[in-house]
Amino acid sequence: MHRDLAAIVGARAVLSQPDDLLLYEFDGSVDRAMPNAVALPATADEVVGLVRWARQNGVVIVPRGAGTGLSGGAVAVHGGLMMGFARMKKIVAIDLGNQRAVVQPGVVNLELTVAVASAGYYYAPDPSSQKACTLGGNVSENAGGPHTLAYGVTTNHVLGLEVVLPDGELVHLGGAVWDTPGYDLTGLFVGSEGTLGIVTEITVKLTRTSEAVKTLLAIYDRVDDGAETVAEITSRAITPSALEMMDQITLQAVEDATNAGYPRDAACVLLIELEGLQEAVESQAAQVQEVCERHGARSVRIAASEAERQKLWAGRKNAFGALGRKAPSFYVQDGVIPRTKIPETMRFIQQVSERYGLAIANVFHAGDGNLHPNILFDSRDAEQRRKVVEAGAEILRFCVSLGGSITGEHGVGMEKNELMPFLFTDVDLAVMGQIKSVFNPDGRLNPGKVFPTTKGCGEIRIPPQHPF
Amino acid sequence: MCGAANVRSDTPWCASRVRAITPPEIVAVPADREQLAAILKLATAEKFTVTPVGGGTKRNCGGIARRVDLAVSTERMQRVIDYPASDLTITVEAGITIRALRETLAQHGQMLPLDVTCLNDATLGGTLAANLSGPQRLGYGGWRDVVIGIQFVTADGRLAKGGGRVVKNVAGYDLPKLLIGSFGTLGIITEVSLKVFPIPPATGTFVFGFSSIAAATEVTHAILNSPFFPQSLELLDAAAGALAGVTGTCTSPYIVFVSVAGPQVVVDRASNDLPKLLRGNGCLFSQAITDGSQDRLWNSLSDMTSAYLRAQPAGVAIKASLPLLQLTAFIGEAKQLAEDAQLSTASGAHAGTGIVYQYLWPEGADRGPEGGDRAIEKLPRVAEQIVSLAERLGGRATVEWFPLAYDGKLNPWGKLGDDFPLMQRIKSALDPHGTLNPSRFYGGI
Fold first, then answer.
1. Burial class (CB in 10 A: 0-12, 13-18, 19+), A357
2. In the prediction, which pLDDT does A466 show?
3. Which domains, from first to last, does chain A contain?
4. Would you tell me which residues 67-96 of chain A have a C-beta closer than 8 angstroms to some C-beta of chain B?
5. What is the mean pLDDT of chain B?
6. In this structure, which CATH number among 3.20.20.450, 3.50.50.60, 3.20.190.10, 3.30.43.10 belongs to the domain B4-75+431-444?
7. Predicted ipTM?
8. Which residue of chain B comes nearest to A180, CA vs CA?
């Protein structure tokens, strides 16, 4: 089998030794499973070759970008062939006049922005992992990020996709322009978590950089005050490009790790960014400052220089990594609530933390109500592992009870697939299953993801994968 | 199922709203989605075909159905289900008109930034299903960017949904994207959750006139690459200006309309700086409108297609979507193709998103009873040439609006993509008996 794969992608691009496979056992989530082999195709043709081979041999395929995903989307829960995109990392075309770029799926998110920054453009979706995560993975997960508050998530920036279906067919969805005729298959495909096909090329929209940007740091002694500030900024129709909250545990971890200039003793801070014309930014900054102060902010600081601003963001974007200093493991949740319900939700999370005896660090996209409670624990402790999963589900159930969702940007993956019935009826899931069957009829592509395995809808029983 | 009083036998009503060679004689008016589901269950069991009807404004839009047995009207499904204004979201039933929805939002200083044609009568469900958008798409996005959840009834009468009521959500497949623009062929939309937006404190409209298309597009590109992020950026030739009824504002051969919104300081700066972008670009005319009259102007621009169809019932409207840098070539060459065939034409471009409406209609001698036949012979050919032109320039196009008279004489869809078989398979999976809006959609789906 190793020889079969090597014939398609070359011997150096196939991994099947246990030591090598260990690196592909996990992503950014808590789940682990070993693939039987990893192949690293360099071209769409090689992807087609691998997919055909897998089809002939009844082998499961799990596509993988950089493995930074947070819901187990790139974990080979049924084993099989993992397809990594580390060799498909070319920016194929940059077309500034038409505000487009064409990239291979292995291009790292930030690299695209770096490539067009000097011309005054950038690629808007900016997940915290943007220095590492790939655009192919972003497409599969419909990744977000702090600035999606103003600019939208991945799906709002993807116009066209070249994909390989599990039967080996290569098709083009969407295109280089908006509103291509027919069903919006690009829109369906983005966020389908690798269950409909494998992305081999992506056409994205590039966005103009704003003339001015201002970043404010509002510091609070009470979480409630920060949460209420968010609700009022939204309802007063002030539109920041980012509106992030970090609580005390997070702040301390961030300061220990990066010395970003956050206060260690505050209950929470809001990181608020305004972008646009110089005049608009000035006028909105004054409004934001007033709202923060009215809700009891201890102080409101405006980043005085670009260096200070970058430091604040470095702290925010590295917050997840920094939490590693607080506990051996953490379990990040991704619930969404209507953004005016943040105060009561933060109180609920605090209660859960006390009830389970587990510290919870909050660092999240407050402006669109996308929470990231990080439950700190020690994964070596079986009892804690069990409690963490229970506490997480309890928080997500609360989000849903407020009219929210179980995931805003991390995806369902194999982490929350059993929780899908919180949100969706059997019929909803059955309809999604019918669509899945059109693309992925035997379920060999990324099995065990998105849909509940216990409900018999959408998820097909996968025969055991033999080592190869 | 929905009460005897709510099932009408009304051939004229159906014939004036349903786009079918053999329209139905009966219309059912369910009160809610449960009743609608019961109707569709029956339709599937009895194997009759069904078309959803909202405001009945799309009778000339999309493909033509052969035979439809039953119309279902969403006119009793207009409720506002949930409007947490502070969260900037709203959930409404699909039968609400765009106008009523706008009025509801305006009471809270909010808006739905999708300015569409026929807004008085058009319903939310119908407009979504046709994926129609307008000038403000540049600033706020289209339906795919503002819809956060959709409930629908499947062809076999199941109640289903995708998405939810919060602004960020990646749980499950994005079924709303699939239903937007699906023309009622995959399910009947019953309820929609949307992101809504605060009405900006100040808006300014800037009108510039040019002698050539090249001079006009040079300025639209300069504006797109300026620090301003306009809400709208429209480029009309004089013929389109006349159709929209805006030539009272500017009579130049090519007219650019820009709107800029935000705090008053932003509008002030645009008033100062935008005209500077015009230097050396052969601008014939420049005007800033900052009073209330700009609303009327933008309504006229948004409603251009329906004004055109009323004025030229034998005309067609091609929707082309192009790379931005190809607008000049497309508008110039489309005009040439029409003139060579002695047809009248007009171009109205959303110059920031690359979407162009190219109108094409018979003139003078080709109208009236005898000329009508000549028009039927040559107009479809030219329309297809314009669609091919868009494809040659790296875009895509369809003949979005055309009268029933061109049935069988016009391929409105252009060259089908290699994703078309997938679309057919999705249709078969969700509507195996072809109950919903048969042959109304892309490629005859």
1. exposed
2. 64
3. 2-84 (3.30.43.10), 91-208 (3.30.465.10), 212-401 (3.40.462.10)
4. 95
5. 94
6. 3.30.43.10
7. 0.97
8. B396
Whole-number Å distance between alpha carbons of A47 and B153: 38
Task: Look at A115 and A31; give whichever has higher pLDDT.
Answer: A115
What tokens were used for B410?
């016009």
Token representation of residue A240: 């920041």
The predicted structure's pLDDT at residue B370: 57
Q: What does residue A12 show for φ and ψ, rounded to 5 degrees? A: -75, -10
Chain B contact present for A430, CB below 8 A: yes
> Would you state the structure tokens that stand for residue B251, as one six-digit string?
């009579």
pLDDT, tens digit (0-9, with 9 covering 90-100), for B237-277:
999 999 999 988 889 999 999 999 999 999 999 999 999 88
Inform me whether the C-beta atom of residue A142 falls under 8 Å from chain B C-beta atoms: yes
Chain A contact for B324, CB < 8 A? yes
Task: Give the model confidence (pLDDT) of B287-307 as tens digits.
Answer: 999 999 999 999 999 999 999
- Cα distance between residue A259 and residue A246, in whole Å: 15
Q: Which of A104-113, A184-193, B54-63, B245-254 comes out lowest in average pLDDT? A: B245-254
Whether residue B167 and residue A171 make contact (CB cut-off 8 A), yes or no, is no
Q: Does B106 touch chain A (CB under 8 A)?
A: no
Domain with CATH 3.30.43.10 in chain B: 4-75+431-444
Give one DSSP letter per residue of B384-410, joined into a string: HHHHHHHHHTT-EEEEEE--GGGTTT-
| pLDDT 10s digits, B151-196 | 999 999 999 999 999 999 999 999 999 999 999 999 999 999 999 9
Q: How far is A188 from chain B (nearest CA, A)?
A: 5
Three-state secondary structure call for residue A354 = helix
Q: Is A181 on the interface with B (CB under 8 A)?
A: yes
Q: Quick one: pLDDT at residue B374?
A: 75
Q: How far is B331 from chain A (nearest CA, A)?
A: 16
List CB contacts (< 8 A) between B354 and chain A.
98, 177-178
pLDDT above 60: residue B319: yes
Provide CATH code, domain B304-406: 3.30.70.2740
Q: How far is A182 from chain B (nearest CA, A)?
A: 5
Query: Distance from CA of residue A240 to its chain's centroid?
Result: 21
In chain A, residues with a C-beta closer than 8 Å to the C-beta of B322 are 177
Provide CATH 3.30.465.10 ranges for chain B. Answer: 80-198
Quote the pLDDT of residue A458: 47
Q: CB count, 10 Å around CB of A184?
A: 24
Cβ contact (<8 Å) for A365 and B168? yes
| Contact across the interface for B165 and A450, Cβ inside 8 Å | no
Q: Describe the crossing of helices A382-401 and A342-356 by its angle, rounded to 10 degrees.
A: 160
Instruction: Sort out which chain A residues have CB atoms less than 8 A from B162's CB and list them.
Output: 428, 431-432
CA distance B284 to B250: 10
Q: Measured between CB atoms, which of A188, A211, A412 is closest to B171?
A: A412
Sequence ranges of chain B with CATH classification 3.30.70.2190? 202-302
CATH topology of domain B202-302: Alpha-Beta Plaits (3.30.70)
Higher local confidence (pLDDT), B365 or A378 = A378
Q: What was the pLDDT predicted at A346? A: 95
State the residue for tokens 């192949």.
A39
Residue A457 pLDDT greater than 60, yes or no: no
Where, residue-wise, is CATH 3.30.70.2740 in chain B? 304-406
Instruction: Tell me the nearest-neighbour CA distance from B366 into chain A, angstroms.
Output: 30
Gap between the Cα atoms of A112 and A117, Å rounded? 9
Question: Does the structure show a pLDDT above 80 at A459?
Answer: no
Give the 3-state secondary structure of residue B182.
Answer: coil
The pLDDT of residue A228 is above 70:
yes
Mutate to test the interface with B, among A147, A151, A178 (most CBs of B within 10 A): A178
| Kind and range of the H or E run holding A193 | none
According to CATH, the topology of domain B80-198 is 3.30.465
